[in-house]
Amino acid sequence: MTWSYATNFLCDRCSSEFSLSESLNTCPKCGGLLEVQYDLPKMKRELSPKMFASRDTSIWRWHEFYPLRDAANVISLGEGGTLLTPSIYAGPKLGLENLYFKNDTLMPTGSFKDRGFSLAISFAKELGIHRGLTYSSGNAGASFAAYAARAGIEATVLVEYLANPVKKATIGLYGATMATLHFENMTEITDMLEKGVKELGLYQFVNFINPVRHEAMKSYAYEISETLNWQAPDVMVHPVGTGGGIWGAWKGFCELHTLGWIEKLPKMVAVQPTATGPITRAFQSGLRKAERYGDSTKTIAQSIAGNAPIQGGERVMNAIYDSGGFAESVTDDEILEAMRWLGREGICAEPASAASLAAVKRAVVEGRIKPDERVVCVITGSGLKQSSAVQRAIPESMLRLDADYNQLAKLLVEIWGH
């Protein structure tokens, strides 16, 4: 059996091809982003959906769709296979008949980043990488640290100064070396990291600069389509920072469509906070490339607060335009309301995750999403990773009582009315 159908890296910019056995980040010829290519005609001949039904539910059930060559190099904590939960509260309130939540709050380190780092660390192990670096607003750093620890890879995390203390502490808990990174805009970070690749030979795990992390996000497409009896949703909504999640999911849906496993492709919707919405701003202007925009300190949605996407966010823009989708920005107040709504669904989401539901509400009001469309919101991270925002969304109850039966009876009458 073929473990992987991946063939080579291809540069987005200059179309140069490179071997998967080379320890590359960006293109060594032009600095463009590298994309993994696959032998899709051979996959179409040899694979079928039924082959995957009996496998375990982690992202590795789809190993043929990734560039890792040897199963012995897999580093897994059980990531992937999270529930696609039908809405019981937000959907009826919005008049949506088929609203679902892809609940990645249930991942090993509490965020969707675990999909990408399971693959990226496994691939690095296969290449013989012994140390690595990533930049993070918190979630990616924690995930990188956890998987690197399992692989015996020395991890260094540059965590932005805006990250909350819980996320910073978690990075250290998993054993990574952490340095707090100060900056004025995201362009400074990407310029620094790209120069580090060229001048220092660093192997990096930053989305897109690392050419395989986003490949694992294709598992969204596979898992969702399988759960929906090999149908794609009409609309998939994803919070966007660098955009590895939405790009990887779009690539996965495109692969399934090429293989003939799904009949149509979903509209991809990118969500950002209004304080920092370079992708939304570019889309509203009809552009294919996003420029620096906004202030990362002015939103509670820390995980998607980047104001300057890597290489102009071209991959994210392509996913939006090529799918017939759109970009939406939402305010902090809308995010807080969405957090409360998700709580009624039984989901505790951090602000960046709840932004996807906030965008759905806005899009319904604007008429961009129709009542009969099948909509999937990706909930990317647990609210427990940003507890201060949860406290802001739901203030502490002012009800008080002593351990006295009469007080209990009185309280329940006040609450229940009988």
TrEMBL record:
Residues 75-381 form the Tryptophan synthase beta chain-like PALP domain. Its cofactor is pyridoxal 5'-phosphate. One of its GO terms (molecular function) is L-serine ammonia-lyase activity. It holds the Pfam family PALP. Its EC number is 4.2.3.1. The modification N6-(pyridoxal phosphate)lysine is found at K113. GO terms for biological process: isoleucine biosynthetic process; L-serine catabolic process; L-threonine catabolic process; threonine biosynthetic process. It comes from the Bacteria. Keywords: Lyase, Pyridoxal phosphate. Belongs to the threonine synthase family. NCBIfam families: PRK08197.1, thrC. This is Threonine synthase. It comes from Neobacillus novalis. The lineage of its organism: Bacteria, Bacillati, Bacillota, Bacilli, Bacillales.
